[in-house]
Every structure is written in structure tokens, then in C-alpha cells.
Amino acid sequence: MAKACPPEFREDVVRVARKHEAPINQITKDFGISEATLHNWLTKADIEEGAQPGLNEVERAELRALKKRTRLLEQENEILRRAAIYFAKDLGPK
User: Fold this and answer.
1) Rounded to a whole number, what is the distance in angstroms from the first to the last CA of the chain?
2) In terms of pTM, does the model score above 0.70?
3) 14 part of a folded domain
4) Is 63 among the domain residues?
5) How many Cα atoms are found within 13 Å in the side-chain-facing hemisphere of 56?
6) How many other CB atoms are there within 10 angstroms of residue 45's CB atom?
7) Number of structural domains, the chain?
């Protein structure tokens, strides 16, 4: 797995690529990254800046948190449902 690059490095590479002073393949060779990585970084930067539709980093983090909370609530609901069934057996006709 490739090591993560610091945000400052990503910002620098995106800034250089957007100047269009060199071809993409030359920029990727100079910075030691793949073309796919650079294209991903450019797309993410466009989304963060609002130039392209999509979820920015804050919205993605919020969505992850909400999904995690939903999963937890569903598990708690299932536990309560099972507990209600278990205790309802004791309340049945004798």
C-alpha cells in the first residue's frame, strides 16, 4: 500500500498541475506519484472548492458519523425488540 502524502504536498502538486506549465506525465514523474493519483487529487480539490459537484471532506466525515450512529441505533433497537419478545413470554397466559 502506498504511503499517505501530507496535505501540503498534495496542495503543492495540485497548484503546479493547474498552472499547465508542464504535461501531467512530467509533473507526476517529478513528484513521484502516479497519474491516477494526481487526477484523484485534482478532482477532490475541485469538489472542495465547489467547482465540481460532490461531497467535500466535512460532508463525507458527517455522513460517516451518521451512518455509524444509524448502525448503532439499529443494533440497540434489535436488542430491545428481542428483550421485549423474551419478557413477553413470561406475561403470556398461564
Assistant:
1) 63
2) no
3) yes
4) no
5) 9
6) 18
7) 1
Q: Which residue has the cell 502524502?
A: 5
Nine cell digits for residue 47: 469538489
Looking up cell 502506498 gives 2
Amino acid of residue 43: T
Tens digit of pLDDT per residue, the chain (94 long)? Answer: 567 889 899 999 999 999 999 999 999 999 999 999 999 999 999 998 888 888 888 999 999 999 999 999 999 999 999 999 999 887 766 6
Domain of residue 45, residue span? 1-54
CA angle 53, 16, 59 (to 5 degrees): 25
Q: What is the CATH number of the domain that holds 40?
A: 1.10.10
